[in-house]
Amino acid sequence: MAPQLVSLKGTPWHPHRxxxxxxxxxxxxxxxxxxxGGGGTITNGDTQWMTAGAGLLHIEAPPESLxxxxxxxxxxQLWVNLPAKDKMMAPRYQDIRGGSVQLLTSxxxxxxxxxxxxxxxxxxxxxxxHTPITMIHATVAPGAEVTLPWREDFNGLAYVLAxxxxxxxxxxxxxxxxxxxxxAGGSLTVRADEKQDSHTxxxxxxxxxxxxxxxxxxxxxxxxxxTKDELMQAFEDFQKGRLGTIPAVHGMxxxxx
Length: 257
Known about the structure:
Blueprint (H helix, E strand, L loop, with lengths): L1 E3 L9 E3 L2 E9 L2 E5 L4 E4 L4 E5 L4 E6 L2 H6 L4 E8 L10 E5 L5 E4 L5 E7 L1 E2 L2 E2 L8 E8 L4 E5 L7 E6 L1 E4 L4 E4 L3 E3 L5 E6 L10 E8 L7 E3 L2 E3 L2 H12 L18
């Protein structure tokens, strides 16, 4: 998995093949449309999970009203690799609304956990994945600590959306914009500092992990494949128009907004 930054005005139409994009919105509004018929508008707590598979074209941007008004936009996008057997599968789009995620709390009530995909201690989120993956958004109150059971065959990382705290038994410090990678073990521990910034009441962190694919990977631009030959084929297929055509655009031009 890797983070992907999106500009204020979004992106123009562009291709993808061989992986998935996962866009999660904490605050704000985001529009998406793709050449496979997927798309829509997501807002607070919603997730768009797009499986590019064999390839498609898509466009994503905050709505023009948000850009013009200077409104708040806070979210992240992940690129999730697909195993070789699934790289050329048919594209798929999942619209995961914030109200459909699995909501859990820590025993002391100090942490709210939103299971977006995968499973946590027997509680499954709505996101469908091609390899075992867990994605959780945790809100941890100042001074609270939460230890979550974690599959030992999973890797694990924590990305801080807001606030500051620490991770692991050693309480390694972590703050806004930083990522912590956990070592081997059957649990993840996150703790919020007693004092948070005035504009950030809690520690907000995304916890991610999955079963490593352990296959060769090559990537360039919008394509993630297993071999250089597959990568070159992806570029050729895009140039020859084999990854789809731009559909009628509703509210977005070919260049974005």
